[in-house]
Each structure stands twice: as C-alpha cells, then as structure tokens.
Amino acid sequence: MAAKLAGEVATAREVSLRSYQLFGAGDPRVLLGLEPQQGWPERELVRLMAERCGVSGDVRYRVGPDCIDPERTLDALDAFAEKLGEAAANRTPVLFGTGHPHRLVDFYAALADALSAAGCEVLTPAQDRRVDITTRFGVRTYNLDYVRGVALMREPGAQEPGSDTGVHSHSPLPVRVVLQAAAEGAGPLPGLVVGDHGWVCGAGQLGFEAIGLADVDDPALFVGEAEGRVAVAVPLDDAVRSVYYRPLTRYVLNRACLSR
Predict the structure, then answer these.
(1) Domain ranges across the chain
(2) Buried-exposed string 18-28: b where 16+ CB fall within 10 A, e elsewhere
(3) Which Pfam families match (predicted)?
(4) Which of 3, 6, 46, 168 could crosslink 70 through cysteines, CB 3.0-4.6 Å?
(5) What is the pLDDT of residue 3?
(6) Is 90 in a helix, a strand, or coil?
(7) Tally: H helices and E strands in the chain
(8) Cα 91 from Cα 138, distance rounded (Å)
C-alpha cells in the first residue's frame, strides 16, 4: 500500500522483537490488559505473528524493516466489517476507544457515525472520569473524554472537551473504568467494543466481544485472537497520518453495508 499501512511498514524488526520479549516476560506495557492462557516465548510469538500478519517467521532475522502482508490485512478488514454489519443489523450497543487519538479518531468516528445512523447506540459512559495510569514517567492522571463518540484519554485541562487531541496510551484501565461505569449506570453494556491497544484487550479479557487494529509490535491483540478473547485483530501500521486511513474507512463501510 502506498501509505505503508501494509507492505513494508515503519515499525522496525528490532522494535517488534523487543515487544515480543517483553510480552513473553509478562510486561503489562505490552500485555495491554490481556492475561495469556499459556506461555508465549519469542519463537512462538514470531510464528504467530508470521501467520497472522505476514512478518518474517525467521527468528534469525533480527534487524531491518518488518512487513505486513496486505492480503492478511484485507482478510481481517473483511472480518472486522462483518462484525460491524452484524452490530448494525442487531442494533447492538457499541463502544469505541483508542490509544492513538492523533491517528485513528477519524477512522473510528466515521464508523460510530454510520452505526448510530443504523440505529445502534454509541456508548459514552464515564465522561470526564479521572484515571490514574502508570507510565514510564510514573503514575499520571488523565481525563476520559469522547470525541464524536470515540473514547480517549487527555491531559487534565490540556484542551476543551470534545477536541481531537489526546494522549497515546496502551493501558486497559480506561476501558475497565468505562465498562464499570456502564454496569453501574442505567444504560446498556456494549455488545461490541471497537478500538486498539488496551481498549480491545482489556474488553476482551473481561468477556466482551472486541475487534480492533494492531501493529506488528502489538502482539497482545493477535494472541488474544488466537486464544479466543479478541474477535478480530487487523494487522496494519497504526501510526501513519490520519488521512491515510480514509480508504480503509470507505472499504470497511462498504463491506459492512453501512455506506450512505
């Protein structure tokens, strides 16, 4: 793909391998809220990622560019769109959340708009709730906000509520807070969670149907898919310019029969 959503991507092989090592060691920064059902040493993760994403399965390949097979991306996007289509047909309540607000809000927001138009309730519980998240700089407090129906975290007071900025996050804590708020409130629980990072793995670990996008250095979503707690994980570069996801938006909406 010309935008490098698939094919040779910007994520280097050594970055991916470091993530696989940390995942195997149980580092929460890369588990994203998932609790693996088995051990996942580096060799097994490389095998899985080669199968799911199309990266090199040669464990001796340590340094250089990594690749995603575009056909695997399209196959996963078809499965992703099928889940959205089922949600629309059943008028399923849906929750959207992203740890990549600068890149992916527009993509998810377009899907949220389409599902809302189809009669689905797009859930927005725990608006403005404060969440303490452990980062490399220590524990930081962020506010939960929604932009066009998509949940994200932002620095307190950084922007007016509803603006399209936010912080990059891998944490599953926000989705746990949101789901707890939904369970305690009068509104429905989501029948489908759509997003990335901890939003997908955190929801899937709690038994909610979850689908999302993941780069080759985010093995948790693909392990979750292999172990049955993530319904669909779409392999692609999750950090390119937001405008490059527009063809994916059109493709998914068309395949889900949600185009207007």
Answers:
(1) 7-255
(2) ebbebbbeeee
(3) Phosphatase
(4) 6
(5) 63
(6) helix
(7) 9, 9
(8) 41
